[in-house]
Each structure stands twice: as structure tokens, then as C-alpha cells.
Design brief:
Structural class: alpha/beta
Strand content: 15-25%
Largest sheet: 5 strands, parallel
Shape: elongated
Strand order of the largest sheet: 3-2-4-5-6
Number of strands: 26
Length: 750
């Protein structure tokens, strides 16, 4: 259906909508949204509508929680040195700060360590463990990592240091021999929710250690959870919702400065985390040491916080520039590359941004991508996939060619050697080509709401915001509006890579924005009629708020008729080579013709403009005989006779019955005319037309403003009257052109 997706319309009955609305005091749109997501049960609706004070599941249900808590409390009592071993992304940074603050609040002798992405890599590092333990640490607690650190944990054990692992990443066939492993998907336990972020697991440990629900730490949980793209359902949903409340009520000073520098003002929501906070926290570890991230989130000194916020923001700017340079270089390299799966490497590619680069290239070229930095014969890089092609499984089939390898279905990180690269390229391309042979390139996209254009409003956003937060596995509402006019198309950005469409009409227009996949939309132009799939947002800029549509997909309608009735067009400015039709303006030299002169036109026009409303439908059919490619309906609502004349069959019957009863009706005075107009609920112009219709039917005669009854026949055929027929035909075409949607108009005439 769309240019990108096959659209799947929602299916629900009016009875279901009514029941949900009445039971839970919902609006029509809210009920439809829940039904579209198949959220119908009481416990589901509670989860999505409430959740503000839900504490989640008992933390002691999680694997090894009891023995971990006992070991940590023992370390605190014995004044052992404890180290929190974190990770350099937003999830890892927030996890580290959260657990460190928890331990310090319990009086622990605790510190933290985050490995360097470039020299130590992700997760436990043997050399780092050696230095840590030699400094006197006797208990290491990992956060957001550790589940794959088999050798490192064995090493720590061998020199007398206990390791407690808290992690959420995929569990391999063999588990580390750690003192305790706290993991929501541990195979020997049955924790009710397995999709916590690393910071969520750390929070469960904090909850168990403190023996109270530590809602004062949920701002960190919200940031790490949204940043790590885990499903926003169950516990994650509760934690993010409550964490966002805390972020708005009591923003950490470092974050406050970071948001100020980023020109973000007003409410902090999941989009604020996704597009402002998370990218900046992630950029720290990509460019430098993640230590600055820990300090930013934990400091309470204004000067320190401000300087760190500036530094972190500068890392993000640097990250963007480095990413852009590599992407531009790759674009040149693969300009004529015919491979379906791209394998790219080069010396000097910054390893900290290769995941972002791979995502950009994959999105642009609609291909799975491996991007690597070459250091002598060593290659280190990131992979990204599309179309649900499982890149992790494909790479796992040739895992002997990788010196390090990990990830999930759509993304992976890895290391290899130049000697293997040709075989990796060949194998992965064969795997992907086999996948493509049985694949429908258009994935399905579920629609939540189909609405009229006039329903796009702040009220609609406010109604749907009731279900926030949105995120992975609970996306923002997907809305469809049909038959929209494209008023203007604008490409913007440094390389015109972004798209803005102005849609609607001059009296009610709105911006549609798209930041990716815009090559797919290149055939959309001003004047087109489209159906749009979108998310509805509020855009905050320069202290002002306005509605903005974020485009997901577009369907171009191949209609001849276009509705430009409310576009305030200058009828003198139409191009000469377009046909202009009206009832009153005649200038055949410039191709302005009267309806009555249509028979004089002896050429075809690609574009015909209807400037004034016709008297009947036949004029429109006559125009279509000229074989136009487009017919623009440009007439004004003010010309409509059906809006001016208040006449219908019921009023005519009522008027005739009055005359039948009194036989003679004197309309010589203003009072008598006003009385009749009020009685018939009409106007003077309409009254004159009604009298004309009765005269044509030989029912009355009019002499000196006095009506005389000529016939008391009650079986009257109104269609005998030319005036009545002309009026009905005029009203019918006016209502069709001015009130019906453009698809109805096209279907009627085509």
C-alpha cells in the first residue's frame, strides 16, 4: 500500500469501542488505540493507564539475589573495598552511578571503574581486573556486563577476589564461575520479566540491598532503559514512567545544564532521553573516557556540572563530525557497489562511531552492512542489518573467523583479521542472498488510528499521551489520514537529505517531517494527493509549540481531481497553458472559458481549473472528455447556492399546505413576508424561488404580490418544474465538490 510498508488497518467493532469507553472512562480515540494494540484485559489496561506507583516484582525472585546481598552486606561490615565495574554507554554509565550511590549510602568503601572502549574493550578485562585487585579491591560488582567474562572471573577467583555479575545481555552456553550472577533470564530461575536493561538489573539489586523501594534512583533507570532500546513494557514501563516524573521534578544539576546547552526547555519525556540525553552520554565513551559521564550524573557542584555539560556536548558535536566524515567516505567507496550485503573497512576509521556509521549506511542503501577500522592486519567493527535478516546468526555460522564476536539479531560487534575478510564477505552475501530469495521487501506496519484531517489536534495528542511512555515494543501511536493535498515540498539539511511537506490547505496546514528514507519519497511533489502514515508530535522551537507530523510512510493517490477550494488562489495567475473554466469570466486568448462555451474548445489540456461552481454534473463530464491529467477544484464555498438558498422538499410541502388552507396569501407588507419567512425557516431569496416553482407547476398565480391558489391537487410531481430540477442539480454538484472527500469525488466521476 505505502511506498515503504504494507499498511495493516485496525480491526475492532463499535460495540468493543463503546464497552471500553464506558468501562474505563476513555475517549473514542483512546479506546480505538487500545483495541488496535489488542489491549483489552483489566491487568493490561491497568499497566498502560496507571503504573505510576507500581514497585514491580520482588527483587529476591531474581537469580542469586539473596547470596549477592549477603555478600555485599558482609563486605560493608568488614570495610572491604568494593568496586562497581561498568560500561561506557548510557545504560552502563547510569548503572554504575546508580549502584555506586546505593553502596555509598550504605556506608560502603566503594569506587567505580569503566573500561576504555579503545584499549580495553567491552566487559571484564583481565589486565584491568589485575590492577583493580592489586589496589586492594576484594569484591567486584559488574553492571551491564560480565555474563561473558568466563576467563576474567576465573582469574579474579584465583587471586582471592569475589565477582558478582549483574547483566542483561544474552547468556551463552557456559556461565562464569562468579560468586553470584544476577540476570533476569538466568536459566535456573524464573524471574517474571526478562527484558530489563542493565540499569534495571542494577536497580533490582539496589532495591534488595536497601530493603525499600528506591524510587529516588528511577531517573537513572529511565535514562538507561530508554537509551538501551529495551521493550517499554512490564517493569520497564513502570520504571520509565516514574523515572520521567522524577527527572521533571528534581533534575540532576549536570543533566539540567546539559539540557540547557542543548536548547531543550520544558517537559522531559522519553524523546528527550532518546534524542538529547542518550546520544550525548553515549558520545562520551565513543570519543573519550566515560568517567566524565559518571561525574556529570553524580556531581552536585554547579561549576563542575556546567563544565562537564559543555564537555559532554562538545563530544557529541565531535562524534557527529567524525560520523559524517566516515559516512561520506563510504558513500564514495560504494557508489557503484552491486553487493547486496556491504563489507567495508579502512585505516583511520574511528572505532567509537562505527555502529552509528553502519546504521546510517544500512538505512540509506537498504542493505546489511559491516564497517571496520583496520589496524595493520586487525579489523574491528560493527554490523547492522535490515528486513529482519538475523545478522548475528549469519555471523555465528562462521564464528571461527572472528577473534571476538557478540550482538543480537539486528546488530553485532566483532573483531577479525584481514586474511578472513574475503571469506566473510562471500559467506555473508550468500546467506543474505538466500534470505532475499524468499523475502517480501515490504514489511507490514500496523495502523492504530485512521482519522480525518480535521482530527489532527492538540486534543488528540493529549488524549494519546495518556499512554506514555512509548518506546520499543510499545511504539508511538501510528496514525493514518487519507486524501491530503501536498501544498509544498521542501528538501533541507546540509545535503538536502531531510524532507518537509506542507499539507492541507491555506486555512489549515501542517508540517510533515521525515529525516530518513527520503529517496523513497522522491516521487512525491507539490499538488499530489497522498495518504500519510505518521506519528503526531509537538515541536518546541524558540519558545513556541506547534503540531508536527513525523512521517512513517506515504501512499500516493493516482487521482485526477484535486481539491484546492480553500487555498486562496489568485484566479488571474494560472499558467496560460492550463484551461480555466467559470460561469462569468471569458478570455479565450488566455484559455479562460465559460461553461456554456465548452463545445468551442478544440484541444486537450493537461490541467483544467474549475474556478466557479457549475450548474450540474454534466459540465464536469464534458470537461473530462477533454482528457486532462489533472482537474483542480478551485471554486469558493461562498459561491454555493445550497448555502444561500434554504429550500428543500419539506419546506415546499409546508408552503403549499399553507396556501391550500387559506387559498389567498397577501405578501404586500414587510410584516406578512417576514411572518412567512419565519414560519418556513427560510429567507426572501428562497421564498421567491419557491413561488416560481409553484407557478411553473400551475398551482398558483402571483398578481401584485398576492398569491392565488389555482389547484388544490395534492399529488404534485415537483420534477415537472424546470426551476426545481435546476436547483436540485445545482445543489447536488455543489455539495459533491465542496463537501465530499477527494476520493469520493474521483470515484464518482471516474
Amino acid at each position: 500500500m505505502g511506498l515503504k510498508f504494507n499498511w495493516v488497518s485496525p480491526s475492532y467493532s463499535e460495540e468493543e469501542i463503546k464497552n471500553l469507553k464506558n468501562t474505563y472512562n476513555l475517549t473514542d480515540m483512546q479506546a480505538k488505540f487500545l483495541l488496535a494494540r489488542n489491549i483489552k484485559k483489566v491487568n493490561q489496561i491497568k499497566e498502560y493507564l496507571i503504573g505510576d506507583y507500581d514497585e514491580g516484582f520482588d527483587p529476591f525472585l531474581m537469580s542469586d539475589m539473596q547470596i549477592a546481598v549477603e555478600r555485599i552486606h558482609k563486605a560493608i561490615e568488614n570495610e572491604e573495598k568494593i568496586l562497581v565495574y561498568g560500561d561506557y554507554d548510557a545504560d552502563g554509565i547510569t548503572s554504575t552511578v546508580l549502584l555506586l550511590e546505593t553502596l555509598l549510602s550504605l556506608g560502603a568503601n566503594a569506587s567505580s571503574y569503566i573500561p576504555n572502549r579503545f584499549t580495553e574493550g567491552y566487559g571484564p578485562n583481565k589486565e584491568a581486573f589485575k590492577n583493580i585487585i592489586e589496589s586492594g579491591i576484594s569484591l567486584i560488582i559488574t553492571v551491564d556486563n560480565g555474563i561473558a567474562g568466563i576467563e576474567e572471573v576465573d582469574y579474579a577467583n584465583s587471586i582471592g577476589c569475589d565477582v558478582i555479575i549483574t547483566d542483561h545481555h544474552k547468556i551463552q552456553d557456559r556461565l562464569p564461575n562468579a560468586y553470584a550472577i544476577i540476570h533476569p533470564e538466568h536459566p535456573d530461575f524464573n524471574y517474571p520479566f526478562g527484558k530489563l536493561a542493565g540499569v534495571g538489573v542494577a536497580f533490582k539489586l539496589a532495591h534488595a540491598l536497601l530493603d525499600i523501594y528506591p524510587d529516588f534512583l528511577l531517573d537513572l533507570v529511565a535514562i538507561g532503559t530508554v537509551a538501551d532500546l529495551v521493550p517499554i513494557v512490564s517493569e520497564n514501563r513502570f520504571f520509565v514512567k516514574q523515572g520521567l516524573n522524577l527527572l521533571n521534578e528534581d533534575t540532576r544539576i549536570g543533566l539540567k545544564f546539559l539540557l540547557d546547552i542543548s536548547n531543550h526547555y520544558g517537559n522531559i519525556d522519553e524523546d528527550t532521553i532518546s534524542f538529547i540525553i542518550a546520544p550525548r552520554l553515549n558520545s562520551i565513551g565513543r570519543i573519550s573516557s566515560a568517567r566524565d559521564g559518571l561525574l556529570l550524573l553524580s556531581t552536585d557542584d554547579n561549576n563542575t556540572a556546567y563544565e562537564l555539560a559543555k564537555k559532554v556536548d562538545s563530544f557529541n558535536i565531535e562524534r557527529k563530525k567524525i560520523t559524517e566524515d566516515i559516512v561520506n567516505d563510504i558513500n564514495k567507496k560504494i557508489k557503484n557497489d552491486k553487493r547486496n550485503l556491504l563489507v567495508i573497512y579502512e585505516e583511520g576509521y574511528h572505532e567509537g562511531v562505527l555502529g552509528i556509521v553502519a546504521s546510517n549506511i544500512s538505512e540509506k542503501y537498504k542493505k546489511p552492512v559491516l564497517v571496520m577500522n583496520r589496524d595493520n592486519n586487525k579489523l574491528k567493527g560493527s554490523a547492522r542489518s535490515i528486513y529482519n535478516f538475523n545478522i548475528y546468526e549469519a555471523m555465528n555460522k562462521i564464528n571461527t573467523m572472528f577473534t571476538a564476536f557478540g550482538g543480537h539479531s539486528m546488530a553485532a560487534g566483532f573483531s577479525t583479521s584481514v586474511e578472513f575478510i574475503d571469506e566473510i564477505d562471500k559467506s555473508l552475501n550468500e546467506e543474505y542472498n538466500n534470505y532475499l530469495s524468499n523475502f517480501d521487501f515490504k514489511l507490514e506496519k500496523n495502523v492504530d488510528l485512521k482519522i480525518d484531517y480535521n482530527n489532527i489536534s492538540y486534543q488528540l495528542i493529549n488524549e494519546l499521551d495518556k499512554f506514555k511512555p512509548f518506546g520499543m515494543n510499545f511504539e508511538k501511536p501510528v496514525i493514518v489520514v487519507e486524501n491530503i493535498n501536498v501544498l509544498e515540498k521542501i528538501e533541507f539539511g546540509a545535503n538536502n537529505q531531510y524532507l518537509k511537506l506542507l499539507i492541507g490547505n491555506n486555512n489549515n496546514k501542517i508540517e510533515c517531517i521525515s529525516f530518513k528514507d527520503n529517496e523513497i519519497f522522491k516521487e512525491i511533489n507539490s499538488g499530489d494527493i497522498i495518504n500519510i502514515m505518521f506519528n503526531l508530535n509537538k515541536n518546541y522551537f524558540n519558545g513556541r509549540t506547534k503540531l508536527q507530523i513525523n512521517l512513517i510512510d506515504i501512499e500516493k493517490k493516482d487521482y485526477i481531481f484535486r481539491n484546492l477550494t480553500n487555498n486562496n488562489l489568485d484566479f488571474n495567475s494560472f499558467p496560460k497553458n492550463e484551461l480555466k473554466i467559470s460561469r462569468n469570466y471569458n478570455d479565450t486568448i488566455n484559455n479562460y472559458y465559460l461553461y456554456k462555451d465548452l463545445h468551442k474548445i478544440n484541444q486537450n489540456f493537461d490541467i483544467i481549473n474549475i474556478l466557479e461552481l457549475p450548474n450540474n454534473k454534466q459540465f464536469i463530464f464534458d470537461l473530462l472528455n477533454l482528457n486532462p491529467k489533472k482537474v483542480n477544484i478551485c471554486c469558493l464555498e461562498g459561491e454555493a447556492k445550497y448555502k444561500k438558498y434554504r429550500i428543500d422538499k419539506e419546506k415546499l410541502i409546508k408552503f403549499y399546505n399553507i396556501i391550500l388552507k387559506i387559498k389567498t396569501l397577501n405578501l404586500n407588507t414587510k410584516e406578512s413576508i417576514s411572518k412567512m419567512i419565519n414560519l418556513l425557516e427560510t429567507n426572501i431569496a428562497s421564498l421567491k424561488i419557491m413561488i416560481q416553482i409553484f407557478i411553473e407547476l400551475n398551482l398558483i398565480k402571483l398578481d401584485k404580490n398576492i398569491i392565488y391558489l389555482l389547484s388544490d391537487n395534492t399529488d404534485v410531481d415537483l420534477k415537472i418544474s424546470k426551476t426545481y430540477n435546476a436547483m436540485i442539480e445545482r445543489f447536488e454538484i455543489e455539495k459533491l465538490l465542496l463537501e465530499e472527500d477527494i476520493s469520493t469525488i474521483n470515484n464518482y466521476f471516474m
